[in-house]
Amino acid sequence: MPDTLLSLQGVRAGYGDAVVLSDISFDLADKGSLAVLGRNGVGKSTLLLTIMGFTRMTRGTIHWRGEDITRLAPYKRARAGIGWVAQEREIFPSLTVAENLTVTARPGHWTIERIYDLLPRLKERRGNKGNQLSGGEQQMLALARALMTNPQLLLLDEPFEGLAPIIVEELTAAIRKMLTEQGTAFVLVEQHAEIALSLTKDAIVLERGNVVHRAPSAELIKDEATLERLIGLKVS
Ligand SMILES: Nc1ncnc2c1ncn2[C@@H]1O[C@H](COP(=O)(O)OP(=O)(O)OP(=O)(O)O)[C@@H](O)[C@H]1O
Ligand SMILES: [Mg+2]
Question: Where residue 221 falls among pLDDT bands split at 50, 70, 90?
Fold first, then answer.
């Protein structure tokens, strides 16, 4: 498949001797989007860390645009076009918003002006240091920083975690706009299943390190029984 951007085949990975992911396979098309759902501790963050090359992978392969990157160093994966926003919202606390954005900048569609159009709140706060931002603003900055690297694929780890509903709405709108503007492929790990499914084309559900369900997001969002069984979600 020439338009496959990322392909995981039979991936087993973990930390030291502990196996967290047993056997994960999926393909992501160029401009595709995948929601990764599952209860706490099933290995969602570990999956993103594995795509970035930060875990110990003991079986399977990862291909990026047709090339085997299974053994490639994390910084080379980043340089090849994979952007990652960690669950811990890593930003530079002592740098201003503007400085945080410029240190990661690489040429491409996303410039600081476009970022400020996408997330006006960051423009208002551009002189504030990272540690003078609210949780929601920090999350916006973490997303913006990753965009400034102009990645071809963006890995987002629970971007809405702990945010007030109004900020979730603001961030959801920004992600939607980002998709229509640029069509960046992304993998979205999220506890808010309804939002994640509304933003993505496809979805997988993890359980104990395996993919236990896969479906188009538009189908899964209507499949109340499966959502309740696999992630304990009651769709209102
Ligand atoms: N650095 C680490 N070293 C050893 N074990 C780890 C490490 N990070 C995570 N684990 C273990 O791996 C398993 C999966 O963790 P992971 O963080 O991937 O889950 P998750 O699905 O992202 O959970 P959550 O929804 O709470 O973020 C857990 O049992 C966790 O304790
Ligand atoms: Mg996690």
Answer: very high
The residues spanned by each domain of the chain are: 4-231
Among 127, 155, 123, CA closest to 140: 123
- Which of 46, 158, 188 to probe ligand 1 with, by most ligand atoms within 8 A of CB? 46
132 token code pair: 């003078």
Report CA(211)–ligand 2 centroid distance (Å): 16
User: 4-231: which CATH architecture?
Assistant: 3-Layer(aba) Sandwich (3.40)
Q: Which two tokens stand for residue 107?
A: 């040429």
pLDDT tens-digit profile of 160-212? 888 888 888 888 998 888 888 888 899 999 988 999 999 999 999 999 999 99
Amino acid at 146: A
Q: Residue 180 C-alpha to ligand 1 middle, in angstroms?
A: 32
CB 57 within 8 A of CB 70: yes
Amino acid in the structure at residue 154: L
Query: Atom 9 (ligand 1): residue with closest C-alpha?
Result: 46
Smallest CA-to-CA distance from 51 within 175, 174, 189 is with: 189
C-alpha–C-alpha distance, residues 129 and 229, integer Å: 43
State the pairing for strand pair 82-85/18-29.
Answer: unpaired
Can you say how many angstroms the Cα of residue 115 is from the centroid of all Cα atoms in its chain?
18
Q: How far apart are the first and last CA of the chain?
A: 38
